[in-house]
Amino acid sequence: MxxxxxxxxxxxxxxxxxRVTCNDSTTEGKRIKFVFVSWIGQAVSVMKKAKVSxxxxxxxxxxSGFHVFINASSTDDLEVGAVEKKLLEAMGSHxxxxxxx
Length: 101
Hints:
The protein is of the alpha+beta class. It has one domain: Severin, CATH 3.40.20. The protein has helices at 2-6, 46-62, 80-90; strands at 13-24, 29-40, 68-72, 98-100. Strands 3-2-1-4 form a four-stranded mixed beta sheet.
């Protein structure tokens, strides 16, 4: 995820997906989850921000296999704790005990 965050630009609208391995201590199993990120940098113009909803729909059609969606405008939105919280919320009753990002 660090590499993902390094490539974000404050002056761009970007979409991306990264993979997370979820570890389950009770079954010693691993599950793979994909996180879709819609990034709107702080320096993006109002007109570009207005186009995001249409662009995002097209990207979601292209890549529909994600488990968690995050709207981000700050790298704080992509901190490990925030992403883990979103993943746990999406898992239902069978929660992972740890994550490898």
